[in-house]
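Here is one chain, start to finish.
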Amino acid sequence: MPKDFYIQPDAPDPVLSDEIVLRLARLHAPQVRAVTSVDETGGEARTYVIDETLILKTQRPQQLRPRTSLAKEVFFLNQLAAVAPELSVPRVLGHGCQPAKDGTLVEYTLMTRMPGIAMRRAELDQRARQAVLRTIGMVLRRIHALPVAPFVASGLFHGDQSFVDTQIRFGNYFNDLANDVLEEHLSWPLSLTPLQVGAKAVASVPRSTDRVPLHSNPYLEHVFVHPETATYAGLIDFGDAYISHPAFDMRRWNRPADRQALLDGYTSEGPVSDTFLATWRAVMILGDAITIAYYPERAAEAEQDLLALLSEV
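Its structure:
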């Protein structure tokens, strides 16, 4: 896909004072008392933990890019609150822009804090991991059932308007991979080149009108679990969401056992079409190709899986 560009890369990036954070939070939750920590692991966003129960999230100015948006995340979360209130996601308490002391505007969102810890930091045995992944699959199926028309009408979400756009998305992923293998001298043990793998994958994708709102990255850093029970807690960070085929939300889960558990959960309350499965297979081929190039310690497993998937197309 086209590389990200940042609109104001040289903008100052100060950490807000507790006074400003609490002033913003009290516009929507007057009872808040204290900022208890600051988390900067989100890349484009900075989050301020308030009273251990709320999050005030701000856009880091120098990380501002077109595809990431606090307004987009607020819209998505509000759609989930209205249509799928049973899902465990942050709840928006307020969103807006307010001036800081120096006159600059601070865009922020106040939301509830997800309990538990990121799955990346959790110690899960294989059985617990598979159970969490099945639940993620079920959650994604519910998210993908949201009506897509409001997302399109909002004007906040980029994505694929047609099947051709989806083909182009696949092609761009493989083009980027091929360029990186060549320019960065990445290991590529297959006899087929990345572009040849991509051509086979894209050719196997059947024409489809499936378009849904995607989380974009429902992976280890955004899936939360309860550490005391090793069970699923919820899903956070919808700021990179876009519209495309639902299978793209699964591409980061590229271990064969993980992806099977995810698919089992996704289909637990109803089957998917052969067209969906064919597109899902092409997405898994893409995931294997990326793993081979960028994660050499897992390349052997990914190569075996990719060759098995290619034999089916």
